[in-house]
Amino acid sequence: MSFAISGQQADDGLYISAIEQVSESLGKANLLFVGDCKMSALATRAFIQAQGHYYLSPLAAVGKTPEQLQGWIEAAVSSQVALTTIERPSTSDEESLPVRGYEVCRTLEAEVEQQAVHWQERVFIVHSPILAAQQQRGERNTAAGGRRKVAGIDPGPWSRQTTTPERSIAT
User: Fold this and answer.
1) What pLDDT digit, counting tens, does each position of 21-57 carry?
2) Model pTM score
3) CB-based contacts of 127, cutoff 8 Å, min separation 6
4) Dmax of the chain from CA atoms?
């Protein structure tokens, strides 16, 4: 099952009702719920865990997560942890580079319907060379755009440049 939520509203509060609907419809535990970083709100993860289900989502960069993530990355870069290489089969003509990473287990606690819920969460710290290269290109483009704007030669995000054989027009 999947649910489409209108983009005109915040959807992080809607996950629990959608999870309840799916659980009631299927009538069983041990389901895997996959979502975006908004699904990774602690209350949602606790609710899923309390219902006997599992979840998979990227962690949102809120609360203690950015600080923890920095420590996990430093542990990987400084070789304090053993990394596992994951080979992926290529799905196109492009070469598929392996990703490397490791797993961290942490204990979480939250309250669901006035009941304390404790569980072990597995966090996967993964480095993808392809994603890293894309991010570096994006940062370079952003930096170059910033330099142009500071120098007064960037017309801004709402402009466009049109080139015709007769002349170049910046609007």
Assistant:
1) 999 999 998 999 999 888 999 999 999 999 999 999 9
2) 0.70
3) 76, 99, 100, 101
4) 72
Q: Are the beta carbons of 117 and 49 closer than 8 angstroms?
A: yes
* 101 CB burial (10 A radius; 0-12, 13-18, 19+): middle
* Residues 6+ positions from 153 with CB-CB distance below 8 Å: none
d(CA 126, CA 99): 7
Cα distances (Å, whole numbers) of residue 147 to 97, 141, 142:
33, 10, 9
How far is Cα of residue 23 from the mean position of the Cα atoms in its chain?
A: 24
How far is residue 104 CA from its own chain's centroid? Answer: 17
Q: How many other β-carbons are positioned within 10 Å of the β-carbon of residue 127?
A: 15
Distance CA 171, CA 155 (A): 8
